[in-house]
Design a protein that fits this description.
Length: 108
């Protein structure tokens, strides 16, 4: 198990700050996308890193493809249009405003 421990140790330095930044990006995204007429943000209680986006009136398969074309990976939506998002360090690749703008365009 030492190779895995070595890799984990390498990425531990600065992890808390990187995750804090990712949470800030996600909060900005959730705030911005909540005003979109097709989206309802549902926060998961008890401080998890998860949130659900309930999307109505949009082709979620098409939206996922459009986002992927921009390098934004989104998990598949349920048949009802619900997407479960989790915060991780990949959120640091953009800003909440840019992510919300891309998501809004993907839903059009």
């Amino acid at each position: 198990g030492w190779p895995a421990a070595r890799v984990a140790g390498h990425f531990m330095d600065g992890f808390v700050e990187r995750l804090r930044n990712a949470v800030n990006v996600s909060e900005a995204f959730y705030s911005a996308i909540a005003s979109h007429p097709k989206v309802k943000v549902e926060r998961i209680p008890n401080g998890t890193n998860l949130a659900r986006l309930h999307v109505t009136g949009a082709d979620m398969v098409l939206a996922q493809r459009r986002l992927a074309e921009r390098g934004i990976m989104m998990p598949p939506a349920s048949a009802a249009g619900t997407v479960m998002l989790g915060v991780n360090e990949s959120w640091n690749r953009t800003t909440g405003a840019l992510l919300a703008e891309a998501f809004g365009r993907a839903l059009a």
